[in-house]
């Protein structure tokens, strides 16, 4: 299916007030990460236009959300309650959110998304996996509209990675290019995601950078990028052996490529995809990210509403 991005929305935890973004009633007791993704999705839908989502019946609307730390702080608080006052003192409003799937479920309820509702949690790449998996579901006929994004909540101070924790959300609306043309809508461009696994032991070996370079070339080829055509990169990486190997591969493919420090979650790569769509360069742009555990993803952003690589189900 030829999908294009028509709506982009993001929110930052700094200065965020759910009452301004969502309304004063019905949101107070939602965990912050759920509030963030609801607000980002609301912005994306406003950006896309009034009929972009509702042109499809509820059964043909789907959602896919990635997160790594949406529930961590809440789980810590629940643990303290259970070991202290007892399980009977857990809040009925927040107790269901022990399940990570609940953080995106309100999104489906809010916008009547009955096609599917997915939550992805792979380290660092979960947001990009949400795009990939959601697009695959649309290609299979499960839906014709996709709200996809990433949301994170700040980690508790004693949690590993707290010094680089993220808080906020990004949401994108994807729909068929033909539907956009029919309603006279505007498209930012196309996105396509490819994921692969780079074993940490291989990444740390002398052949690690070479293996990463080969996997990167294969991913770009699978996404339809032709060697020799203009392509810029943003690499969102940490200092782990996997991050360093992928960083070397990106630097070899595009000397001078932008490299930004990865946060503890999956928000930064999605934010870079959103920025690439908004900036509308005159050439393709790749966002590459990897986790210390080996999970790696490449998102190819092709500008414009026509031509280029479609948002694929690969």
TrEMBL record:
InterPro entries cross-referenced by the UniProt entry: Ketoacyl_synth_N, Thiolase-like
Cited SUPFAM superfamilies: Thiolase-like
Protein name: 3-oxoacyl-ACP synthase
Species in which this protein is naturally found: Streptomyces botrytidirepellens
Domain Beta-ketoacyl synthase-like N-terminal: 29-156
Gene Ontology molecular-function annotations: acyltransferase activity, transferring groups other than amino-acyl groups
């Amino acid at each position: 299916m030829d999908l294009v991005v028509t709506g982009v929305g993001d929110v930052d935890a700094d200065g965020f007030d759910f009452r301004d973004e969502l309304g004063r009633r019905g949101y107070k007791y939602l965990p912050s990460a759920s509030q963030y993704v609801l607000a980002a999705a609301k912005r994306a839908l406003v950006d896309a236009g009034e009929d972009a989502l509702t042109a499809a019946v509820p059964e043909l609307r789907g959602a896919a959300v990635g997160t790594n730390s949406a529930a961590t702080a809440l789980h810590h608080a629940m643990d303290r309650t259970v070991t202290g006052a007892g399980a009977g003192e857990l809040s009925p409003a927040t107790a269901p959110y022990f399940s990570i799937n609940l953080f995106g479920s309100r999104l489906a309820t809010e916008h009547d998304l009955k096609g599917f509702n997915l939550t992805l949690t792979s380290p660092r790449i979960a947001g990009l996996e949400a795009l990939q998996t959601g697009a695959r579901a649309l290609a299979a006929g499960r839906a014709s509209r996709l709200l996809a994004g990433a949301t994170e909540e700040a980690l508790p101070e004693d949690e590993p990675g707290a010094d680089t924790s993220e808080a906020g959300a990004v949401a994108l609306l994807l729909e068929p290019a033909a539907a956009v043309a029919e309603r006279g809508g505007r498209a930012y461009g196309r996105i396509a995601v490819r994921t692969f696994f780079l074993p940490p032991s291989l990444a740390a070996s002398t052949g690690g950078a070479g293996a990463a370079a080969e996997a990167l070339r294969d991913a770009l080829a699978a996404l339809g990028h032709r060697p020799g055509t203009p392509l810029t990169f943003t690499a969102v990486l940490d200092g782990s052996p996997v991050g360093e190997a992928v960083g070397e591969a990106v630097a070899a493919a595009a000397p001078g490529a932008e490299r930004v420090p990865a946060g503890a979650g999956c928000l930064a790569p999605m934010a870079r995809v959103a920025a690439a769509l908004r900036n509308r360069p005159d050439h393709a742009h790749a966002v590459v990210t990897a986790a210390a555990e080996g999970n790696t993803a490449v998102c190819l952003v092709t500008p414009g509403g026509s031509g280029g690589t479609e948002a694929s189900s690969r």
